[in-house]
Design brief:
434 Repressor (Amino-terminal Domain), mainly alpha, single chain
């Protein structure tokens, strides 16, 4: 059923295709935008999906082909525009060689408090749009993913260790200055 809101002199009318469905009220109904597909937990799962896919060097097209879905659907999962069903999450874990728990690892307390059940009941509501630390998670940055992928492309274990030691030394030196 399609409907639209019409404002007339401070009164909102919900107009539908059926005359008997006209609703009159003095204001638009309140919406709770926090109980949507863009829930913080769904966003966390999508970020973890993207992280693992990228660390494996797998494209959205490749993952989509394995799941028998389009790359656009993979994008929607990664952005949390669409929720991932339990069976689809299982398949993703199998393809990406991780247990389902991987997608929920490293979840912040703030994200845990944003479950739809807690939000609907008004329990510990929080501001989802603002990261309290003001720092973006470095593990989801493209730069980090590219660096990790390049690091694991080094075939020699001893060369990888020397690169890691060099980066640690540089980081320590720069933080001391």
């Amino acid at each position: 059923m399609h409907f639209r809101w019409q404002h007339l002199e401070g009164v909102c009318l919900r107009l539908t295709d059926r005359k008997e469905s006209i609703v009159v009220s003095s204001q638009k109904p309140e919406r709770n935008f926090r109980i949507t597909n863009n829930n913080a937990i769904d966003m966390h799962v999508g970020k973890r999906l993207r992280l693992r896919r990228t660390l494996l060097g797998m494209s959205q097209e490749q993952l989509g082909a394995e799941l028998n879905i389009t790359f656009q659907q993979v994008q929607k999962y990664e952005r949390a525009a669409n929720r991932i069903s339990a069976s689809r999450l299982w398949d993703m874990g199998q393809i990406l060689d991780v247990p389902i728990s991987y997608f929920f690892d490293d979840m912040s307390e703030t994200t845990m408090q944003a479950s739809p059940r807690r939000v609907a009941r008004g329990l510990d509501t929080i501001e989802l749009d603002k990261d309290p630390s003001g720092v973006k998670d470095p593990m989801v940055r493209r730069e980090t993913l590219e660096l990790v992928r390049a690091y694991y492309n080094i075939e020699s274990a001893s060369a990888r260790k020397r690169v890691a030691d060099m980066v640690k030394t540089i980081a320590t030196t720069l933080t001391e200055e």
